Amino acid sequence: MAEKNIVWSDRKRWLFGLPWSFTRYRLYxxxxxxxxxxxxxxxxxxxxxxxxxxxxxxxxxxxxxxLGTIHCCSGDKTSPEFDIKRxxxxxxxxxxxxxxxxxxxxxxxxxxxEYIDGDDGFDDGDDGHFN
Length: 131
Fold this sequence. Notes:
- This protein has a single domain, classed as Pleckstrin-homology domain (PH domain)/Phosphotyrosine-binding domain (PTB) (PH-domain like, Roll).
- Helices cover 22% and strands 36% of the residues.
- The chain is built from three helices and seven strands.
């Protein structure tokens, strides 16, 4: 099976905006992947349609070096909240990510009600229909 195309990728940055870290971010058409660690690697995958809310924070130090941090809240059980820390062109990525999330949710016909009411996928009524 061929690897899907990467839409965006970057590393978490440290001093002076240099990418000296062991955290890598990759955005695919339908998922976001956080890969971190040196000796022990940990990869976390979040499906875009599960992301419920995103926000951008840019501290004074981050703004000096053209960086920002995107905070995401999701319906994912292993990663209910995660940060895309100290990345370049953070506002641009936030806009791209927001549009891709909306497209993926529309494609899968997923609404936020699924996460507010519970994640079992069934309506509380007795008509036997899915949400």
